[in-house]
Amino acid sequence: MIITPAARWTSRIWLAAGFLFLYLPIIALVVYSFTDSPVPNVWAGFSLRWYEKLVGDEDIRHALFLSLQIAAASATGSVVLGTLAALTLERHPRFRGRTLFSGMINAPLVMPEVIVGLSLLLMLVSMQRLFGVPERGLTTIWLGHMLVGMAYATVVIAARLRDLNPQFEEAAQDLGARPLQVFFLVTLPMIAQSLLAAWLLTFTLSLDDVVMSAFLSGPGSTTLPLVIFSRARLGLDPTVNALATVVIVVVAIFVVVSSYMIALREKRLQQEQKAAMKAAG
User: Fold this and answer.
1) How far is CA 58 from CA 38, 54, 65, 224, in A?
2) Closest CA to 145 of 212, 237, 53
3) Angle between the 192-207 and 138-163 helix axes, to the nearest 10 degrees?
4) Which terminus, N or C, of the chain has the lesser number of Cβ atoms within 10 Å?
5) What is the DSSP string of 41-61?
6) Residue 264 is inside which H or E element, if any?
7) SS3 state of residue 31
8) CA angle at residue 231 from 227 to 232, to 5 degrees?
9) Residue 144, Cβ density class (10 Å: 0-12 exposed, 13-18 middle, ≥19 buried)
10) CB of 194 within 8 A of CB of 158?
11) What residue spans define the domains of the chain?
12) How many C-beta atoms surround the C-beta of residue 141 within 10 A?
């Protein structure tokens, strides 16, 4: 297929437009975090006053710490439960109730988050009336986020398990390894990258969730997205821009470092494979 110069330039223009649509608002947000104006989209000279105000804003600091706690806990729980669910679905393709089990795992992916949040709220209120626990707060938000995150983690991990060569696990079993040993010594190292990807995905989903947190939060358990949303209705100042800039910088550093580590690991694996092939030859 011959690509004409006009088609090549058209594709480049559409690509540039797509990148501008995605990243221009982020760049504008970062730039206006340094404005001296109290209006978040008006430039009135360079200033760091909003970063100083951010450091002294106890509500935002408390909400950020709470959101990080919930996101880390829900991501960890989602990966653990998602790994168990993925192993069940991929290593046991036939068992009674498999269709129902698969449907229940995937239901949070297709159901509106409002419906999931409302149903969880009604269930937790009923449990609190009957047993006195749990009270709406950190625990209930964590349960709701983990419910949704488990579905995403299951999809990511199951896709990796589906691509694994079962001969490695069978060889370990032939050598006398028990099922737990096979999982921890053979399967787990091969799906480690998918576990990390699932953890990062569910961490991000939990960190920026608004709908589920709004239903399940209680007094003293307001997450960062809820704080920003409540302030947006009253009028924002560039403090939110400063907070977003800090988050963007931290995430960018983490992505660069993790990508570098993954690239080093893949390079080392390729070198080990080449050395093994030479030794076998």
Assistant:
1) 19, 8, 11, 12
2) 212
3) 150
4) N
5) T---SB--HHHHHHHH-HHHH
6) helix 239-280
7) helix
8) 115
9) buried
10) no
11) 28-280
12) 31
Q: How many CA atoms lie within 13 A of 175 on its CB side?
A: 11
Residuewise pLDDT in 10s, the chain (281 residues): 566 777 788 888 998 999 999 889 888 888 888 888 888 778 888 888 888 888 888 888 888 889 989 999 999 999 999 999 999 988 887 888 888 888 888 888 888 888 888 888 888 888 888 887 778 888 889 999 998 999 999 999 999 998 888 888 888 888 888 888 888 888 888 888 889 889 989 998 998 888 888 888 888 788 888 888 887 777 777 888 888 888 888 888 888 887 888 788 778 877 877 776 677 65
* Total residues found in the chain within this entry: 281
Tokens standing for 73? 């806990």
**Sign, CA torsion 170/173/178/182:** negative
- Distance CA(228)–CA(243), nearest Å, equals 10
- Return d(Cα 25, Cα 22) in angstroms, integer: 7
CB 78 within 8 A of CB 150: yes
201 vs 152: CA distance, rounded Å: 8
Q: What is the CATH number of domain 28-280?
A: 1.10.3720.10
- Contact (Cβ atoms closer than 8 angstroms) between residue 212 and residue 113: yes
Cα distance between residue 226 and residue 218, in whole Å: 12
Phi, psi at residue 127, to the nearest 5°? -65, -35
Assigned token pair, 259: 């990508």
Which residues, in sequence order, are CB contacts of 60 under 8 Å at separation 6+?
54, 224, 227, 239, 243
Residue reference for tokens 């995905």? 201
